């Protein structure tokens, strides 16, 4: 059965998710909601409307196509929809073990690898070419950026951003609301609300 999907968001990240949906024979993009759309209209068989009209389209499943972790969470909190109203979108090119659990509203982008017994929370982004090794625990509203590599048994807390080409060695824990910079190599645990950069990754500041 084909799932009818409405995207929330209409920026650069949404363009990629639109392509993913259109490549997936099990999904159909029927609508796009965004705060910058002033009035309802239809173009190329896809309707466009303001995000505030979301409850008019409750019969569909939604995906929040916005890269900012905090904005995704704000939208979920604002409209208070049940988990079953959100679809997980997985690109056909991704390699995902059958033992992996993926939460609602999460996006698994092209050429991602997620290996056995890993868990990905709700409304997270595993971006293009990222590798999530076995037994990882990725919490809600996380963004793993393109080409990042998380080795085995890594945990990442909610609302954390892992930058492009970052590497996390096995058995490390990264706290919530933290940022790991692009290209960083994480060789020890990181706490909540820190920014870490470099090789090896060092904390350069705390986040208020």
UniProtKB/TrEMBL annotation:
Q: Name one Pfam family in it.
A: PglD_N
Q: Which Gene3D superfamilies match?
A: 3.40.50.20, Hexapeptide repeat proteins
One MF annotation (Gene Ontology) recorded for this entry? transferase activity
- State if Transferase is listed as a keyword: yes
Superkingdom to which the source organism belongs:
Bacteria
UniProt cross-references to SUPFAM superfamilies, sorted A to Z: Trimeric LpxA-like enzymes
InterPro entries listed in its UniProt record: AcTrfase_PglD-like, PglD_N, Trans_hexapeptide_repeat, Trimer_LpxA-like_sf
What keywords were assigned to this record?
A: Transferase
Q: Where is the PglD N-terminal domain?
A: 5-78
The record's active-site residues are 134
Binding, acetyl-CoA: 143
Per UniProt, substrate binds at 67
The annotated site for Increases basicity of active site His falls at 135
Task: Spell out the protein name for this chain.
Answer: Acetyltransferase EpsM
What organism is listed for this UniProt entry?
Abyssicoccus albus
Phylogenetic classification of the source organism: Bacteria, Bacillati, Bacillota, Bacilli, Bacillales
């Amino acid at each position: 059965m084909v799932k009818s999907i409405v995207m929330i968001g209409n920026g650069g990240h949404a363009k990629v998710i639109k392509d993913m949906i259109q490549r997936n024979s099990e999904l159909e993009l029927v609508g796009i909601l965004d705060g910058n759309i002033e009035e309802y209209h239809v173009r190329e068989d896809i309707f466009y409307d303001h995000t505030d009209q979301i409850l008019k389209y409750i019969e569909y499943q939604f995906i929040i196509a916005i890269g900012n972790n905090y904005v995704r969470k704000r939208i979920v909190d604002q409209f208070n929809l049940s988990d079953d109203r959100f679809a997980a979108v997985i690109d056909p090119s991704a390699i995902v073990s059958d033992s992996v659990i993926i939460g609602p509203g999460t996006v698994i982008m092209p050429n991602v690898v997620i290996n056995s017994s890993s868990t990905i929370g709700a409304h997270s982004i595993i971006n293009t070419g990222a590798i999530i090794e076995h037994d990882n625990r990725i919490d809600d509203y996380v963004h793993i950026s393109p080409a990042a590599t998380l080795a085995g048994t890594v945990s990442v807390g909610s609302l954390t951003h892992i930058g492009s080409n970052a590497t996390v060695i096995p058995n490390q824990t990264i706290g919530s609301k933290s940022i790991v910079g692009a290209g960083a190599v994480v060789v020890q645990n990181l706490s909540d609300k820190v920014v870490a950069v470099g090789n090896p990754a060092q904390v350069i500041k705390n986040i208020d």
